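Before going further, learn to read the protein records used in this course. A complete example follows; check for yourself that the lines match position by position.
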Amino acid sequence: MRIGIDLGGTKIEGIALEGEAVVAPRRRVPTPRGNYEGTLDAVVRLVRDIEADTGRTGTVGIGIPGVASPSTGLVKNANSVWLIGKPLAADLEARLGRPVRLANDANCFALSEAVDGAGRDFDVVFGVILGTGVGGGIAVHRTIIDGPNLIAGEWGHNPLPWPTDEEHAEPPPCYCGRAGCIETYLSGPGFEYDYSKISGDSRPAPEIAEAAARGDEAAAIAVARYHDRLARGLASVINVLDPDVVILGGGMSNLPGLVSAVTGRLPRYVFSDSVLTTVALNVHGDSSGVRGAAWLWPETPEERSDGATAPRHLARSSTRSGEVIP
């Protein structure tokens, strides 16, 4: 049995898988924001509750909004800032009495969709999270690609390509310390901020989308700008990675007509006479991250009796620099 934990900024979710079957349905608890010790307690309690439900002990994979440094094992690049600089994997291993595997939450999303989701029939998958932040993950032949710095797929902290005069003149500040990052335009808060600049009003993203569908001019402009910015951002990824499929996830992926709007705009920006990359919505919804976290551990020989190839996670150990986990 493989237990997956999705450690998000507002909630922590857990699930248990046997092969592709769910043997313990998703459980959800609030994230103790700003409280590192409370976060550890919540994760451990979730694992214990799942094991009590199933009567079994499982491996534990955890998706986090950041990564563990390969040189120190300390969390970095996390927008859940109370995790930064903490030995999350080591602390959880000590409390659970077993190894755990950490991966970026966008990598978990990409792995889940590559294994049995919208990317299962493709070799190279780029998974995109459009939510409170903007993340990305790469899976090749059902294997997460991390890179030596553990930042492969982090397109959200590149500058928005081909900026307009307005975007060039007033790039929004980003929590990373720079300005004009893709995340500042394509995250939910970035979309809401852009609408407020156009309209002088403040609304949550779903209401802006509804207003655009009713013909509200300011909302329609904000949505059209979002479509074009997403196409520009993805074109820069396609120009480098040339994936078979781009899979959209996160709350902003629920914008009506997003896939067709972006697909139609990609040829304006991709360096090719045709764009054969598929853009698709995710299959598993907000379950993808937690399922992918479970997949960080390989299947047992019994689970592989059908001859299927297990997903793999190429990642450095959270506790020993340079170690590769097979």
Observations:
- The chain is about 35% helix and 20% strand.
